């Protein structure tokens, strides 16, 4: 890390940008420039300015400002691209929330989406129509539409037929001169044809240069029978005559170098309900490839994914519960295929399975799983495939760089191609290299993990890339990039693949669209033949908890502080590079400056819920890491609360009562004002519920049958349900739980000395381990006695507390005899079947708390909500950011996370529901919609 000051041109641009997007959305401080400059590639470029643009009008103004100042713009959605196309050393433009629009049309046959919508979110919205978008990259759970279109991403089932190029119906884009072209709008297109007649003529002339030369035309046609994202999509020049159609399709795969895409309309493809997947294992990589060729010709397969021997070995080290061959000693020549097929009916699916098995059984298969149809099993298979990059990268040496590439061989040369790759790895001394990929298309991904701080390794990599281009593109007529985009890593080799004439056409395309060179320079087209070995990312060793992070960005959609401060990968990238700085001289001053900024951006604004770990293929829990480095300043208070928790409860009740007496609105404004100056002062939310009434007396039953120990958690025994105008009177959560259990024929009762009992979560969060263990011991004694030493099940009424008691039991701090149900599981399997439900609520908004997702209860909570509502919609927010007490002490995390919810939630939904009192508190505060506990909702809907 070395801080570089802004030059005059970028200073001027930053000043103009301040007026366009506001000062809070322009970052010139080195700390944020470094953090936000991080992407998933092997390169480290630090932008001079970072801007967050929230709408198309702002983008247009930024384009004009860039031309005025002579600076370049790189647009970024997720930053999961692997080849450096979302890196910038000029201006990085990150897209904001207003680009999250999604509209389904024509009964699901079309979908209109903004560039910030995650691909998996589009498919989730399309699921009721049994449709999906065509592209299916392995990163679809994090990759956004902007990047999917910009890279013409394909994936495992997509092939060449259903990628963005072939499935985009219409597009809305901003060109270099600020003009907006919307191909859906006939008047807009007509006006564009007139205003840009010369532009369209030059585009037609470029087409004529290819069409009039039979050799070039045939070369383009042949190349695009394969997956190919090397250079611009010049197939548009032979596929279409209308220059508008040519323009539209050239934009696909142009990696932000020709203009800005603000919206697209996709034609969707069928999504079949009936699917089956199987692993088949070989001890010969060549035999494996021969099997692929036969499957492609003869079998009704949707996807065939290849894992080479080293990949199998590394996956086996990282993941449990896979087929046995993943755990055998390393055999470099072994390989396996993951196959998927699907059908409209179960009968059609079975017929396809029979046909596929008849094909691959002709080959020397050592072991196979057989086709599995259980969604839980097949999901585990495909989750493994989708997470291969970080999983395999986990096996790298400390400090090694990650270089992922993908090439395509014609199917007739697949066996020779795989052998050629392995020969190149051996020749250039990359023993760590692995091969995986979409074998059905001849699209092989490989991963290298060299130490790129070594000049020798850089030279080796340079020579390797030269020979790779010769072998893949020239000798076998393949593609140097199949789906990851050209980026910076392959830009110097585009001419080697395409030849001088077609490469000149591509250069002319760039000049036509971007005469001022303001769109993503050096990506796809470059004059720097050493670009691919320039500005390698260093990955310093810093902490074992974050060692395996390769900065892929899979974690980011789960982070509530994304857009506020830092995401998990940004926290990791800044921390480990900061720790590598010397602590003396100029570097020492830089460390002190960065460390100061990190306290808020890295530590204070981390919700520490660990939802990032659920998204991370190798389970990195950045929340746990941040907690480990967070200082503790409240030890004495925690000790007092831990030893006398009943007094802590009384203090909470007194504070909440006082706030209500003085007026919640007034207290919210007062505490918010004080919080700005004194960060330690918590903010009282506007939806703060009133203090709960005392727990009722529940006699201990004489019979064990149908008895339930009710552990009413401290938050629910001290605070009422949140209320709004629809309730005549507000009840306590425990009133609803007791009513619900009684309706179902259960006899609930409280443990003795429940007041002061706590699961210890507040102490765990505060890193007060002794106090946490003390409260756990007290709770263990209390629950053991109440449950007759494990004979009676225990119901816990707040999801975070349920998760905590399960964690305590796993650690041996709670007796293993205790029957501690996941609350959603007990409600769904034991309570609801005994109930008669009344008429349903029309429209309900469901929020799944972090704790429910981590405890495995998400699907069960959804089913419970569906018992009470005709239409249930999810918030699609993985972490609301309340994070225990963080919603009071750092309320901006909660506010930032929930800004993604519709502004009209109160009008759109009848009510909301969740399983965490603090989540409900934050959600109600920021939407105005009442969020109830699931128990309150079920009680209301049950007779």
UniProtKB/TrEMBL annotation:
Keywords: FAD, Flavoprotein, Iron, Iron-sulfur, Metal-binding, Oxidoreductase, Transit peptide. InterPro entries: 4Fe4S_Fe-S-bd, 4Fe4S_Fe_S_CS, Cys_rich_dom, FAD-bd_oxidored_4_C, FAD-bd_PCMH, FAD-bd_PCMH-like_sf, FAD-bd_PCMH_sub1, FAD-bd_PCMH_sub2. Its EC number is 1.1.2.4. Its cofactor is FAD. Residues 43-271 form the FAD-binding PCMH-type domain. Residues 538-569 form the 4Fe-4S ferredoxin-type domain. It holds the Pfam family CCG. Belongs to the FAD-binding oxidoreductase/transferase type 4 family. This is D-lactate dehydrogenase (cytochrome). It comes from Ignatzschineria rhizosphaerae. The lineage of its organism: Bacteria, Pseudomonadati, Pseudomonadota, Gammaproteobacteria, Cardiobacteriales.
